[in-house]
Amino acid sequence: MVGPVYLLGSERSGTNLLRKRLIENQKVFYGPSPAHFLSSLFYREPYYGDLHDDSCFLALIKDALDLCYVHFSPWDVVLEPDAVKTGFDARMPRRSSVLLAHYLMTIYAEAKGYSSYFCKDNFLYEFHEAIRREIPEARFLYLYRDPRDYVLSQLKRPDALRDHLRMSRLWEYEQNKSIRAAHTLRAEGRCYSLSYEDLIQDEERIISEICDFLGVEYGKADAIAGDNIKVRVKEWENLEKSTIKSNFGKYRQELAPARVAQIEAICWQPMRFLGYVPENGSRPVISAFTRLRVFGLAAAGWVLRMWWRNRRAAAGDPIVGRDRLLQRLAVNYRSPK
Length: 337
Prior knowledge:
The chain is an alpha/beta fold and 337 residues long. It has one domain (5-328): P-loop containing nucleotide triphosphate hydrolases (Rossmann fold), CATH 3.40.50. Helix content is 52%, strand content 7%. It has helices spanning 15-24, 37-41, 54-69, 81-91, 97-111, 128-134, 147-155, 164-187, 196-201, 203-214, 251-254, 257-273, 288-314, 318-328, and strands spanning 5-9, 29-30, 116-119, 139-144, 191-195. Helix 8 packs parallel to helix 12.
């Protein structure tokens, strides 16, 4: 079996662009829209009880399959829980959420005519230890982006929380986790790191190098597997166009110098480690007054966002329907004896 590929990194860092370009230029790895198996199920696994019990394991399987179908880009291959359990037990060494996600992604890729899969689920830096332990053949890519452009991109999202300090903290947290994971994995020869800026400016070279790292032939796929998208996703609009090679450094024109300084104050260590040059000669300081003012605006933004999400829920938005699904996962909770 060809080992899967997992992507470490943050949203709004070119993760979907990398997924699409990689799938277009090789014939081994399929990259479906993310189902977020591990962020939804990994920490909830104990709630299902003893997975050696078929009823407990079937409950986990049913919730995992719901994640595939209650989705803005649902899987278009129908999988039944009993058939999944039988196939899983024949191919996997033990029952766990990591291996269940691995099995589902594998058989979905095989149904699409591929040997393995590319997974860009969110927060994979949280699960890399479990993945590398349970799937020894797995490999990883680490994709990162300039935090100032990352924050700008986050602020432009339609229902984003307009809090550049919070977005900066999120970038810093995710890079700290991803850099540590990539350091460990690279020492084992299992991780390739790349920047968003290198990807968009020299796409052909970067994708070719990734293919070499993965041991697959670089070349156009026989057929491009598209996403089965049920709703309009604004953030994905540019994926059908040619890569915008100049899509970096826009923070200089669109963010005030004071905001740039605040972003750099928070992201100072990882951004310099990753090779990004600060606009400020020394690490800026964020005043207590600024923190308090931004916190108040963030709280107001959160209230408005919840109001908007409730309106979307009333209109039957499938993305909010997925949120409701996550709230009911592991309904068959069994307390430890």
